[in-house]
Amino acid sequence: MSNFVMLPPSDELTEDWARAVAEAAPALNVQIAPNRETALRLLPDAAAAYGSLDPELLARADKLQWLQAPMAAPPAGFFFPELVAHPAQVTNFRGIYNDHVATHAVAMLLSMARNLPVYMRQQTRGAWERHLADEDILHLPESTVLVIGVGGIGAEIGRMLAAFGARVIGIDPRRSDCPEGTQEMHPPSELDRLLPQADAVVLTLPHTPESEGMFDAARLALMKPSALFVNIGRGATVRLDAVTEALRARRLGGVALDVFEEEPLPPEHPLWQEPRALLTPHVAVVGPYIPERRLAVLCENARRFTAGAPLINLVDKSLWY
Predict the structure, then answer these.
(1) φ and ψ at 6, to 5 degrees?
(2) Within the chain, which residue ranges are assigned CATH 3.40.50.720?
(3) What is the pLDDT of residues 304-319, one digit of tens each?
(4) By the 8 A CB rule, do 224 and 251 touch?
(5) Ranges under pLDDT 50 in the chain
């Protein structure tokens, strides 16, 4: 029997999840580590674990073969050099948020396309001010939307936007086939060439060494002054100072952000007051059935691990996703 350790910090679901994993994979001896001291004691005999490790914990995990990350895209620091070099396989929870995050991204883009952030601010002061300039509206049937990162979420965003008539172009380092609704697929090397064509840009990128700071002042300057910009991936991919300056200089039509370089975004940050910005506090993942979906992935991988079958949601540790 192999030992499976559920690492701290624990939450109210830990015991229920431990029972579910034990039922799904009876060959696993599921152990809960409510604190670091217990984790250090249990890890030397663990073949598998759920949660986050640091160099000290990993150094104790001599027998570790599989680590299930506790989220779809772990934050910077999760894939430290020792873990990348370690032979253990790492899996994540990608795919379980596709519908919620894609809907949030499309809702943000539609809101900006119809200038709703401006009207929402007017509503708080009871101002009946009509903005009727045609150029203030993004007419989706005549628009080009660039989706950067066409995994499960990006593909769903493309499918939804195609239903509104948009021409969707995807950029992805791994994918060359066109999912439903996406008219073209290109590698990241084509990004700077395609940015000037886009009426809207949607980022779904994970935080990786390659994506960090991808959208800085130079890259934003390649976009149309009227273009709309949405980020529902990871905040570290976009430089907020550059976004703020581009809005103030009217080199962007509007931005919608659910993720930020600094979270929580400080209340004094100027983006809160920017009339052409739509901000939500990292809530695109919120929606029903997420705990059930996470547990289902964990149990499926537990079954596969004990059966010696390929794990699902396997991560390329060197790329962090």
Answers:
(1) -95, 110
(2) 2-95+288-307, 98-279
(3) 999 999 999 999 999 9
(4) no
(5) none
The hierarchical CATH code for the domain 2-95+288-307 is 3.40.50.720
How far is 97 from 266, CA to CA, in rounded Å?
A: 26
Q: Is 207 a catalytic residue?
A: no
Per the annotation, the verdict on 269 as an active-site residue is no
CATH of domain 98-279: 3.40.50.720
Q: Are 34 and 7 in contact (CB under 8 A)?
A: no
139 carries an active-site annotation: no
Catalytic residue among 100, 207, 234, 276: 234
Active-site residue among 282, 293, 303, 304? 282
d(CA 169, CA 256): 19
What single letter denotes the amino acid at residue 35?
Answer: N
What Cα–Cα distance (Å) separates residue 202 from each residue in 47, 96, 300? 40, 19, 32
Q: How many CB atoms lie within 10 A of CB 23?
A: 11
